[in-house]
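Practice problem 4.
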């Protein structure tokens, strides 16, 4: 029995220190995916890693075995920081719904932010490159893209401040009241950095951009009216800045405690606000203990993100309803995968039994003419058709009903058709701690 599921953790279940330990850079995504496929024995698989989540989307014949191996993989990478309560498992329709909600940014810290869709596509591309995308996962993820685009087009979910970078800039405005004339330093010129640069530029702040690639820093500075500086000037720019936003892809702290000790002395303890929106973090958490230095990370932006959601509550409710509708449509398609081979297998089984009985009986009736034998064959065929008419009609109609999967599954069980149908459907059941004590079915992701 092949089943689609997702195992993972997010900002709603795990703190930043765990998420950054599990974080996977884009350059290592394919390598990690190959590794996780080997240890989990899944048929199809896709790994997604963002500042808010690390999740494995997969299909497997033995869901619980695959999920337990996935849990062990995540626990190993967390290096002791992991606890069972952080992990969630979703299967069947709930896994589909979760995928649609994540892609549509309904499960994001900042509901409506656009970055998650791009990250979802990167994860899908990496999975395709490793050959780990099959029929179910391909349909699920490509449908998630369409659902996300539809929601962004037909609702106002993306109105206002819709990403972590703009929320960080909102925080800077709350701190200073007005950023006009203030010195803002942006460290990092990737997608998040670009969004932050545009938000900072709109405030009238004097913007300086530093990036390891001087060309990227220069290009971003030109596009948003900032000033590019070399990486070697980081310390001196920290001395002059009022607010700093960091968003690099470094796996190590870029602003260390030692560096900030020197900077703080040079500033003569003048207040400095640091907003670290990178995962893994760019700034050593010890920096927050220094006098006149105020450090915020992505988890500190939760309250502002909640205010952001409240402003778009109606749009979010409409988007949730759209997701549910799309999940039902997907489920009808998924049921059809099992429906057709089940119908064929059931008819073949009846015909096989009739044919076997005819072959066993006819030799005992040598007096029958050729015409009589043909009539007997036709009679048996008609009996099969009449016996199967009602159940096959019910099966064909089951795709339009919510309990269709249960009916297909029951047919497979009653007539022992599993080996003949290939991909089978199963009734949707809730994963409980008794079934899989190391995994919990998360409810926190269902209402952002």
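Answer key:
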């Amino acid at each position: 029995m092949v089943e689609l599921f997702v195992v993972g953790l997010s900002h709603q279940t795990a703190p930043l220190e765990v998420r950054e330990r599990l974080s996977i850079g884009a350059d290592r995504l394919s390598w990690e995916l190959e590794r996780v496929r080997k240890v989990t024995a899944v048929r199809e698989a896709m790994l997604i890693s963002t500042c808010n989540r690390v999740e494995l989307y997969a299909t497997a014949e033995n869901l619980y075995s695959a999920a337990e191996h996935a849990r062990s993989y995540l626990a190993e990478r967390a290096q002791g920081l992991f606890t069972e309560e952080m992990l969630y498992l979703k299967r069947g329709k709930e896994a589909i719904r979760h995928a649609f909600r994540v892609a549509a940014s309904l499960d994001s810290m900042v509901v409506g932010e656009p970055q998650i869709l791009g990250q979802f596509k990167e994860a899908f591309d990496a999975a395709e490159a490793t050959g780990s995308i099959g029929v179910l996962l391909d349909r699920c993820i490509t449908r998630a893209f369409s659902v996300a685009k539809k929601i962004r087009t037909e609702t106002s979910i993306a109105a206002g401040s819709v990403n972590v970078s703009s929320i960080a800039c909102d925080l800077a405005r709350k701190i200073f009241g007005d950023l006009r004339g203030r010195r803002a330093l942006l460290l990092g010129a990737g997608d998040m950095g670009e969004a932050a640069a545009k938000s900072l530029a709109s405030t009238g702040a004097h913007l300086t951009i530093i990036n390891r690639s001087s060309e990227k820093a220069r290009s971003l500075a030109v596009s948003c009216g900032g000033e590019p500086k070399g990486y070697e000037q980081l310390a001196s720019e920290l001395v002059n800045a009022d607010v700093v936003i960091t968003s690099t892809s470094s796996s190590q702290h870029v602003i260390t405690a030692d560096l900030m000790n020197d900077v703080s002395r040079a500033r003569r303890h003048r207040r400095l606000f640091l907003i670290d929106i990178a995962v893994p973090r760019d700034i050593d958490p010890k920096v927050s203990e220094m006098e006149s230095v105020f450090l915020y990370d992505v988890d500190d932006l939760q309250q502002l993100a909640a205010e952001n959601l409240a402003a778009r509550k109606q749009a979010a409710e409409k988007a949730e309803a759209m997701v549910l509708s799309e999940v039902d449509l997907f489920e009808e398609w998924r049921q059809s995968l099992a429906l057709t081979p089940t119908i064929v297998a059931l008819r073949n089984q009846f015909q096989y039994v009739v044919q076997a009985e005819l072959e066993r009986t006819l030799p005992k009736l040598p007096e029958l003419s050729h015409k009589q034998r043909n009539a007997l064959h036709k009679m048996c065929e008609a009996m099969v058709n009449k016996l199967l008419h009602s159940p096959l009609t019910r099966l064909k109609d089951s795709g339009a009903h919510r309990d269709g999967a249960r009916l297909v599954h029951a047919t497979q069980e009653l007539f022992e058709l599993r080996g003949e149908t290939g991909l089978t459907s199963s009734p949707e059941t809730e994963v409980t701690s008794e079934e899989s004590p190391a995994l919990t079915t998360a409810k926190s992701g269902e209402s952002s």
